[in-house]
Amino acid sequence: MSHTLIARSFFGTTMGFHIIFATLGVGIPLMILAAELLYQRTGDRDYSVMARRWTKGFAVLLGIGIPTGTIAGVQLMLLWPGFMTFVGKVISLPFQIELYAFFIEALFMSIYVYAYDRLRPWQRIASVSLVTLGAMASAVLITNVHTFEDTPAGFKLVDGRITDVHPWQAFMNPSFVDQAVHVAVSAFMTGAFFIATIAAYKMLKQRDHIRIYTFHRKALMLSLAVGGIFSVLTALNGHETAQGVAQWNPEKLAAAEGLFETRTHAPLAIGGYVSEKDQDVKYALKIPGMLSFLVGNRFDARVKGLNDFPRDEWPPLFIHVLFNGMVGIGFLLLALSVIGFIWNKILRRPAFPKIMMWGFVASGPLAILGIEFGWIFACTGRQPWVIYRVMRTEEAVTGAGHLAGLFTLFLAVYIVLLIAALLVLYFLFRRHPVANDLPPSSGKPESL
Predict the structure, then answer these.
(1) Other C-beta atoms within 10 Å of 91: how many?
(2) Residue 91 domain-assigned?
(3) Less packed terminus of the chain by CB within 10 Å, N or C?
(4) CB of 26 within 8 A of CB of 188?
(5) Spatial distance between the Cα atoms of 220 and 33, rounded to a whole number of angstroms
(6) Considering the entire predicted model, what is its pTM?
């Protein structure tokens, strides 16, 4: 592996690990808020129990997300000094504001946890709302730096020197709004399906305990409702984001779809793999004209192909698989939500089939996998640029040696942290089973 590739793998592994906790740290507070709102609206104490128990799990995830986020920040400075020098001169603003967003999240999380019994209902809802807002703002502000890498703005380069800097123009770069919304709604979707996984698994294990089964059924229906809403929003926003990619980073879209020649009526390639030798997507299902329609809202829209760009500026062609995986998982989760809604609300069946329940169990890991695919696709698809058409990745990397050894050490640390997080969550809820928290009977209907 080259020095640059080791550095990319090192930082990519850190972000790949951190993004699990960061995403759940945005999505789970919304689920806590939804449960609190339902409790205040219905008086059903089951929703209050959900909010309290999910808060305990969120606190554990936050305890892992904070140090891994700190590690990522330190690695940015150590592994990518060229990039951080550039960013410091143009777009340090989101890093500074993000500290305030995290302060809001941590402060009101503490208030909600430690003063829960002393707070009035509206104060609890306000506290959780601010936790959700702070967590979302943190994610959006970090995303802002990523979008700047894709669509740099707010400065001029004159003889290699940065001049005429406008921080707010850099902040509001062309791709920021679409990608910020995409990050937020996909995180809310992932948090909901993560809860669905737990609820569905518990339902399968607690079929003989009607009271506990009913509690988890309510949690499942709530998570499917929230997950379904944000699945739709993620799909709609994903379409807008893809159109932005076609406009601002056309070679990324061309690589994602394995399109080599610029053409109208460009087909959408589903599945398969991209063969550079054959300049085609092998074993793919191709829908004629659909890529042109998705990009330009008409079938004769012109889509740029990879051959319009120098070979050394092509992204890695394997991003086609990542893009397909991300989109496929998104539509699968949407289908699960729709099927669950039809089965429960329209057909009014009292129980879900076992195969459907295992689909719900798989939804959380699939949502996290989709987030990982999307993140890797977004960053790898920008290669060979760390700042699009301004700075190449090899120009930003550190000259320090021994990165392979450090990479191995940190990989071991991440594995230990992951095992520790899972063990803490397991023993926390094993020693405090839901049966101890539930009132004898909620007296409310099981479904939403």
Answers:
(1) 26
(2) yes
(3) N
(4) yes
(5) 15
(6) 0.94
